Amino acid sequence: MARPVAVVVAAFLAGLLASEIAAEIAQNSADFYNLGRRRLPQQSLCLELIEPSGYSCSEHKIQTKDGYLLGLQRVSSRSGDLRTQLGPPVLLQHGLFMAGDAWFLNSPEESMGFVLADQGFDVWVGNVRGTRWSHGHVSLSEDDKNFWDWSWQELAEYDLAKMIHHIYSITNSKVFIVGHSQGTIMSLAALTQPDVAEMVEAAALFCPISYLEHITAKFVLRMMILAMGIHELNFRSDWGVNLLDSICDGHVDCNDLLTSITGKNCCFNNSRVDFYLNYEPHPTSTKNLHHLFQMIRKGTFSKYDYGILKNLKLYGQLKPPSFDLGLIPKSLPLLMAYGGNDDLADVEDFHHTLKELQSTPELVYLENYGHIDFIVSINAKEDLHDRVIGFFRSWGKSSSS
Asked: Which family does it belong to (predicted)?
């Protein structure tokens, strides 16, 4: 039986974007309506967030084969120099409604991007199309509906693939990947492609998602109905603020939204919500949410379903092709971290993913962690980051190709 359309928002409105929005609602729902009026960062990610903490950072612009211009940042430790950085390259891939800033929102001692840089890794920060740290398109305006004609399928096949290829070509080394939430959907899909997998040394996936049949988030929204005809989903726009206002005005109880969407997060620092909201959320396409909803409703990990006629035209078959997780090389090391309180990356769906892999990933189970703890926990270094660093170092001997 098809799940309600609103479940997709329970999965992705705040859970995959980050708890910054939802946590503020949980404290004071009235503040949510001021979201679109908050200050937006005006400079580059390097200048705005990374260099003020004392880290060397350089900006890179790359072009996907379908014409999108993506921003990448390259970061070294406070004691390092980008020109002489010798550690293996690591690409950080953010989740939905987020961008590369998500890896730097806590202190240098708590943020994954800073911790990896201080440990000598050559840190590269990904930003997918449509986010504020990317740079548009070679010919399409962001006001053009065609600019937003994409889902996580294109993010995996074009954006992530291009990022990996660029880093590989610059460093002459295989790339380590760290992904969170939608970043794991992208990673798993991309790694089924042999030309991408051969450039990757190992991957650490937080809250890994490829199937979404068993989401237990209880929060119900009407967003997908209200968003009909909208191509860009941007909560900082007037339209986005009005949408949220209409959802919370008499239709939905916006108290304790974070827990109802993501599960109970044990280690989120509520005192930093105002700071987080200077950066999050970032825009995405409505088509992206529709694709995620297809995963929930159909129980598949497949390309976008356009309907029978367009599927025949694009794919040569009635149904969209699946991403076959069995194609991910058995020799590719994987670490997968999941939480006991995560209502989005459900444990049953996670075990479905494990059954389809050829390899046996290294598992990190954090019983008290909800979905958001994996990106902004104040205890993440001890709980998670040190494990990832040890995992990468154990597989980094062959990183030079």
From this structure: Belongs to the AB hydrolase superfamily. Lipase family.
User: Which residues have C-beta within 8 Å of that of residue 314, sequence separation ≥ 6?
Assistant: 306
134 is an active site residue: no
Which class does domain 45-396 fall in?
alpha beta
322 catalytic, yes or no? no
19, 181, 260, 285: the active-site residue? 181
Residues 108, 51 contacting (CB under 8 angstroms):
no
Mark whether 181 is an active-site residue.
Answer: yes
The dihedral over CA atoms of 31, 229, 154, 49, expressed in degrees to the nearest 10, equals: -20
Question: How many residues would you count in the chain?
Answer: 401
User: Residue 80 has which token pair?
Assistant: 């390092």
DSSP secondary structure string for all residues of 323-341: --GGGS-TTS-EEEEEETT
pLDDT greater than 70 at residue 260 = no
pLDDT in tens, 139-169: 999 999 999 999 999 999 999 999 999 999 9
Element at 41 (helix H, strand E): none
CA distances from 170 to 100, 163, 173, 244 (A): 20, 11, 8, 43
Q: Considering the entire predicted model, what is its pTM?
A: 0.83
DSSP-derived letter for residue 313 is H
Per the residue annotation, which of 101, 159, 305, 342 is the catalytic one?
342
Tokens at residue 215, please? 């989401």
Cα angle 354-357-360, degrees, rounded to a multiple of 5: 70
Q: Mapping DSSP to helix (H, G, I), strand (E, B) and coil, where does residue 11 land?
A: helix
66-113 per-position pLDDT tens digit: 999 999 999 988 776 665 556 899 999 999 888 999 999 999 999 999
